[in-house]
Specification:
By secondary structure, the protein is of the alpha/beta class. The strands form 4 sheets. Strands 1-2-5-6-9-10-11-12 form an 8-stranded parallel barrel, surrounded by 8 helices. A two-stranded antiparallel sheet has the order 3-4. A two-stranded antiparallel sheet has the order 7-8. The longest helix has 14 residues. The chain is globular, with a radius of gyration of 17 Å. Bound molecules: (5S)-5-amino-3-OXO-hexanoic acid and zinc ion (ZN). (5S)-5-amino-3-OXO-hexanoic acid binds next to strand 6.
Length: 281
Amino acid sequence: MPATTMITVAPTGAETAKADAPSLPVTLDELVRTARSCADIGASVVHVHIRDADTRPTLDLGLLKETVAALRDATDLVVQLSTGGAVTDPFDARLAVLDAEPDAASLTLGTVNFGRDVFANPWDLIVELHTQMQQRGIVPEYEVFDLGQLATLTRLLDRHGLPHGGHVHVDLVMGVPGGMPGTAQALTACLPFLPPGATFAATGVGRTSLPVMLAALSAGGHLRVGMEDTLTYAPGEPVRDNAQLVARAAGLARIAQRPPMGTADARRLLGIDRTPVEAAP
Ligand code: KMH
Ligand code: ZN
């Protein structure tokens, strides 16, 4: 059982409209302020989607580069860019996210229904993301929406080798309509299929946030929370902001006697070799 819990905050996502969640961070300034406040209460990784001036999801490379620089300047969080983007994003734009040279990037291991949409992740895209990340020294977080995607991970590693940094870290994304359910049983079913030596985090979408967090903590897993995944704190109670979700995760991690992991330990765990410059006070 790991002694501490790595908490990732996913503050924005690509699905929620600012009008529906006014505290959703959509500008660079809002994102940086969110990242700082979440770092202060226990997050060590930030999973980033960005929005354009009209608050719509974008993969604009200039803005992504600016975002990576601003987050590095203001925090020492591991900066993980999403290569999943929005369901409408073309594959070449998702691959080009790597040009922004983040510490880490998400890499989804298969196509999944996503509500009424399809989140497309064919094998060739998976291989291209994996090998480009190896070449560029970017550490992947393998996103798994269904158990079969863990078999794809094993095939990927067998054929194309370990990721940069040599460590395999998986995020089980649970409770997406179309993917595996967000239950303790589904989480437990995934564990025997993790590659040897891999670590895992879990994310429960919507109302599955709490059961998935509790199951992950009890099984030695790490946590991802944030407004990308959860907009309701309790029945009938909208989330106040991302910090509220990180505070709940950090509190549960302490109750589990696996308190939040610091950013240096998160870098070591993930095999990230870029040392952060001192963040601004
Ligand atoms: N927005 C979803 C379609 C990722 O960031 O890598 C995909 C997603 C996964 O959020
Ligand atoms: Zn995402």
